[in-house]
TrEMBL record:
It comes from Alteraurantiacibacter aquimixticola. Keywords: Oxidoreductase. This is SDR family oxidoreductase. Pfam families: adh_short_C2. Belongs to the short-chain dehydrogenases/reductases (SDR) family. It comes from the Bacteria. GO terms for molecular function: oxidoreductase activity, acting on NAD(P)H, oxygen as acceptor. Transmembrane segments: none annotated. PANTHER family: BENZIL REDUCTASE, CHAIN DEHYDROGENASE, PUTATIVE (AFU_ORTHOLOGUE AFUA_4G08710)-RELATED.
């Protein structure tokens, strides 16, 4: 008879490994850190290869097993090579965070609350649209595609069966957050439904797929404007029902839940962590 695992034991990732895209900064870096804290070996990938190596070294210096790879998620070959490199280094892959993303800007409203002349649909930049979809949606497809490939192969190679894929979506997948660019919202809504189908298809292989949908977190997104501009930060804090933007450490427990056996019965979920933004901003955007 198999023994029921203890609750905290289910969060333990000792002997496992995970790959994170967009891991040099912000939410992706928090994912890499929590994987390492829970005992996993980690590959940090980012288009900023120097930043990924800087953070991997920081984790190694703290006693964890971590490596880095320069990866632009727009490039399928680079994503595939990163997963192959991870498997070659660590024997298999248990967890993948499809996280890399950015807002190309030009929301309908400026952060100051004025109508943005470049943010209206009839003039919206096609180049910005294409960039946003390529990174935020196609980049997630590339990452999930390659994660599924190596996770399906796990078992045949004598490694553990299955795995967990976690995609970073956004509250903007659900609500019309008209301060971010319209392609960002469209891409994240696409990510949500792509996640749902991936979860459905991959369940038979023991691979779970879920998405984390953050509200406003203090990161370097948008060139870190929220870190550089205290007035903009205050304006954002005042929009959130709980009264403040989030710090990246606050995403770690949810990330670990989904990555580990603690989330073994969760798949196809789009989990909001947004300080109540889904309920509507406290002031109109
Ligand atoms: P961030 O800018 O701090 O980190 C994003 C990382 O992704 C950077 O290191 C960047 O170099 C990397 N990146 C950008 N383009 C890339 C590419 N083409 N290939 C590989 N890496 C690339 O921003 P963040 O806020 O931590 O963003 C992480 C994810 O969280 C994104 O998907 C973003 O849409 C999502 N998100 C953020 C917020 C927020 O408020 N910060 C809210 C909702 C969703």
């Amino acid at each position: 008879m198999s023994q029921t695992p203890g609750t905290l034991e289910q969060f333990d990732l000792t002997g496992r490994s995970g790959l994170v895209t967009g891991a040099a900064s912000g939410i992706g870096l928090a994912y890499a850190e929590v994987l390492a804290e829970a005992g996993a070996k980690v590959t940090l990938t980012d288009v900023d290869a120097v930043g990924a190596e800087r953070e991997a070294k920081r984790l190694r210096d703290a006693g964890h097993e971590a490596r880095a790879a320069g990866v632009d998620v727009r490039n399928l070959d680079q994503v595939a090579r990163a997963f192959d490199g991870h498997v070659a280094a660590y024997g298999g892959c248990d967890v993948a965070f499809a996280n890399a993303g950015l807002d190309v800007g030009d929301g309908f409203w400026t952060p100051e609350g004025d109508r943005n002349p470049n943010g209206q649909i009839d003039v919206y930049s096609k180049e910005k649209w294409d960039t946003s979809i390529a990174i935020n949606l196609t980049g997630v497809f590339h990452t999930v595609r390659e994660a599924a490939r190596v996770m399906k192969a796990n078992e045949k190679k004598g490694y553990r069966r299955g795995g967990s894929i976690v995609i970073t979506s956004s509250n903007a997948a659900e609500v019309n957050e008209a301060i971010v660019g319209v392609p960002y919202m469209a891409a994240k809504a696409g990510v949500k439904h792509f996640m749902r189908h991936s979860a459905y298809e991959l369940a038979a292989y023991g691979i779970r797929v879920n998405a984390i949908a953050p509200g406003p977190f203090v990161t370097n997104i948008g060139d870190g404007w929220v870190k550089k501009n205290p007035a903009a930060k205050k304006a954002w804090d005042e929009l959130v029902p709980v009264g403040r933007m989030a710090e990246t450490y606050q995403i770690k427990p949810l990330a670990l839940l989904l990555a580990s056996d603690a989330g073994s019965y969760m798949t196809g979920s789009h989990v909001m962590i947004d300080g109540g933004m889904q309920l509507g901003p406290i002031k109109p955007l």
